[in-house]
Specification:
Layout (H helix, E strand, L loop, with lengths): L6 H5 L5 H13 L3 H5 L3 H20 L12 H11 L3 H8 L12 H26 L4
């Protein structure tokens, strides 16, 4: 007699430490891919589209991708938040995007969009982790 699998049973393969690390790294690298991995494609698409658009809008609004400068703690925190978006951040840094134009009227808005996109991706990673270990 076939039984229905519970949410915990479906999540069990992802609860191995190595798999969880890979899941979290993949979720960091590409926003929403952790949810794709766990079979939640709709959430994955929404996260991928929303976070990528936030990042792109931050660049369009002349925001700055902050450098890791430990001499200035707030700049270092902003850089950590920027890096939260994963590959879009890496590509942006490699292409020299996000120089920021301080005199632009949209500079602070752009910074906010860039920082929030990375911080939200950290929350998306945590959500994928919670799903994988069966908390959700």
């Amino acid at each position: 007699m076939a039984t229905k699998s519970t949410t915990a049973e479906r999540a069990r393969p992802a609860t191995e430490p190595g798999t969880l690390v890979l899941l979290c790294l993949a979720a960091w690298a590409i926003p929403g891919v952790g949810h794709f991995w766990l079979g939640r494609a709709q959430k994955g698409v929404v996260f991928l589209a929303a976070l990528t658009m936030l990042f792109v809008m931050g660049l369009v609004l002349q925001g700055r991708l902050f450098p890791f400068d430990l001499g200035e703690p707030l700049v270092a925190l902003a850089a950590f938040a920027n890096a939260g978006l994963g590959l879009p951040w890496v590509v942006g840094r490699m292409l020299g995007l996000g120089g920021g134009v301080v005199t632009a009227g949209t500079y602070e808005y752009g910074n906010s969009f860039l920082i929030v996109s990375g911080l939200l991706n950290f929350l998306v990673i945590l959500d994928a982790f919670d799903i994988a270990v069966g908390r959700k």
